[in-house]
Amino acid sequence: MRRWILAAAIAILLASIAAPAAAHPLGNYTVNRAVSLTIGADRFDIVYVVDMAEIPAFTEIASIDGDGNGAVSKAESQAYAEVQCGQIVAQLQVAFDGRPLTLSTGSASHLSFPAGAGGLQTLRLACHLTVTAPAAYGSVSIRDPIDDGHAGWREITIAAGTGVRLSASDVSDRSASSLLTSYPTGRLESPPDIRSASATFRVDASATGENTAAPAVELAPTAGEPLAALIAGDLSPAIVLLALLAAAGLGAAHALSPGHGKALVAAYLIGSRGSIGQALGMGLTVALTHTVGVLLLGGLVLVAGELFLPELVIGWLTLASGGLMAVLGGALLWRAMVARTSPPHHHQHDHDHPHAHPDRHPGVGGHSQAGPPTLTVRSVALLGIAGGLVPSASALIVLLAAVTTGRLVFGLGLIVAFGLGMAIVLGGLAVATIFAHRWLGSRIVSRGPTAAAAVRLLPIGAGLVVLAIGLGIAWSAFARLG
User: Fold this and answer.
1) Minimal CA–CA distance to 280: which of 391, 416, 377, 415?
2) Own/partner pairs for 336-340, CB < 8 Å, 24+ apart?
3) Mean pLDDT of the region 105-132
4) pLDDT tens column, 60-73
5) Higher model confidence: residue 429 or residue 265?
6) CA pair distance 481, 354, nearest whole angstrom
7) Helix (H) or strand (E) run with residue 157 in it
8) 10 Å Cβ neighbour count for 406?
């Protein structure tokens, strides 16, 4: 056992430091856009950058690869860039003193595919646009109406070039992300959503210019994706075994991170009488639900990635998970209140008999038993489904990388191992909760009627907690979807 634990620890350490694990810093589902307007003495120069993370880039690259040979040729890349930049020219709105201006493509646009997680690629498109400045002073406004439905970073900057001074501007003259090449870590949780900007300017020959024009086009990876790193590299029986152990360990660590139903599981089991077998069954249901969810979502991305947004599907799954939790919490609360108000069941012990059995229901104290709600098989299944319904982006990346590298069986094994790691943590938590509840319940009840009454209220409190968790998750998901 010690050897297995040591092997798993080594594998997790190797996965956590693997260089190929670098992923998009803003999340695997995002599409990010930045617009940089530079006001020159005789023209306006615009750089429009699109930065797609691994999952939307996976679908987009498949559409660029017109001949389906698995590689984007120079001709395919150039044709895609021309079409996309042409669409941007047609939609981007630039006006001078309120009058619309007609943009045209400037210098050659650039399309690249920086490395992402698990051997997948991201996509970066930089379009260079230009328009003649109508006058030596005035106001310029720019609006980006393009909306593909993806979440992500949206910014617009307006800067003065050589010989121009800005009189006023409602946006910065410097890109906080260096045109989507270096995202500030402090803003990843709440990225900007700037889609319009305006400024007034005047030509001034003495001005040296404030523009920090377009930076390098490659995006340096800044976030780790240990699970996706396991799919890359040479394979041998020993490496496969270590990778599977690492995937299980990463699944366990994933379950220990904030969320993932730990509070839900603990509260629900405190509020109901469950067995060890039911607790383990709940953990297995989490693993099965999570694995099936990843496979179904991955299949949708592969078959119909252009028809839907994976993050939108995950949003609806999160809403369904929260709603299911709320239903479970409401049912637990209702049963607990019914049990609390029902007439107590009295049973008589033969205290003179040397083998009289002790009270087997310490949660209520004395010899009156209304009892907490009993955990049913259906509740166990629904609890596991709620805990595993939302697939992780890391597991989806592994599946897509496995398809592109021809390692589908290995990728599926990693996903299953990841789900089992989650199941071990949540199932272990469930078992520990049952034991702790029994042990503490018997001791608290022995302290007197006040303590016993408090224990009898636990199922009601647990129902309220589960209901609140479910409603909170559902509301948060609904707000994001809205």
Assistant:
1) 377
2) 336/271, 336/372, 336/373, 336/459, 336/460, 336/462, 336/463, 337/460, 337/463, 339/370, 339/371, 339/372, 339/373, 339/459, 340/370, 340/456, 340/457, 340/459, 340/460
3) 85
4) 888 898 777 778 88
5) 429
6) 65
7) strand 154-160
8) 9
- Vertex 182: Cα angle to 180 and 183 (nearest 5): 80
Beta strands in 265-424 (DSSP E): 345-346, 368-369
Please calculate the CA angle 262-395-470 and round it to the nearest 5 degrees. 30
Q: Other C-beta atoms within 10 Å of 306: how many? A: 10
* Alpha-helical segments (H) within 305-376: 310-341
Task: Indicate if the pLDDT at residue 192 is higher than 60.
Answer: yes
Helix (H/G/I), strand (E/B), else coil: 190: coil
The confidence band for 351, taking pLDDT boundaries of 50, 70 and 90, is very low
Q: What angle do CA 140, 145, 148 make, to 5 degrees?
A: 150
List, in sequence order, the alpha helices (H) in 230-271. 237-256, 262-270
Least confident segment among 48-62, 442-456, 463-477? 442-456
Q: What's the pTM?
A: 0.71
- Contact criterion met (CB below 8 Å) for 18 and 226: yes
With beta carbons less than 8 A apart as the criterion, state whether 463 and 332 touch.
yes
- The whole-angstrom separation of Cα 466 and Cα 330 is 8
Amino acid at 133: A
